[in-house]
Amino acid sequence: MAQPVWEVADILRRHGDAYRAQHALPAHQLRLMRALQLCRTAPLGGHIERCGHCDQQRISYNSCRNRHCPKCQNLARAQWIENRKAELLPIPYFHVVFTIPEQLNPLALQNKKVFYDLLFTVSAATLQTIAGDPKHLGAEIGFFSILHTWGQTLTHHPHIHTVVTGGGLRSDRAAWIPSRQRFFVSVRVLARLFRRLFLEALQQAFQKERLSFHGNLTPFAQPNAFRSLLAPLRQLQWVVYAKPPFGGPQQVIDYLGRYTHRVAISNHRIRNVADGQVTFQYKQYRAIEGQQAREMTVTAEEFLRRFLLHSLPPGFQRIRHYGLLASRPKRENLALCRQLLQAPPEPDKEAVQERLLAPLLRCPKCHTGVMVRILFLPSSTGRPQLVNTS
Question: What is residue 249's predicted lDDT score, i.e. its pLDDT?
Answer without folding.
Answer: 73
